[in-house]
Design brief:
It is built from two helices and five strands. It is an alpha+beta fold and 72 residues long. It has one domain. A five-stranded antiparallel beta sheet has the order 1-2-3-4-5, covered by helices on one side. This is KTSC domain-containing protein.
């Protein structure tokens, strides 16, 4: 897999995020140490999250509850 790391960002809840386009996996690591992988996330959604002013708000509104996920 070839991960595309999101540029550094400041968030009260999220530590980092990255996206694997071939398998359409968005991986998010939280400040509490938990890492989750969201499956079948289209590249345009990952790109929109990358460009969002608030990554956490975008995740809550557009990713959680919309895509299958697993704790990594």
């Amino acid at each position: 897999m070839s991960w595309n790391q999101f540029p550094s960002f400041t968030s009260s809840n999220l530590a980092s995020a990255r996206y694997e386009e071939t398998q359409a996996i968005l991986e998010v690591t939280f400040h509490n140490g938990g890492t989750y992988q969201y499956f079948d996330v289209p590249s345009h959604i990952a790109e929109a999250m990358k460009n969002a002013d608030s990554k956490g708000a975008f995740l809550a509104a557009n990713i959680k509850g919309h895509y299958r996920y697993s704790k990594a």
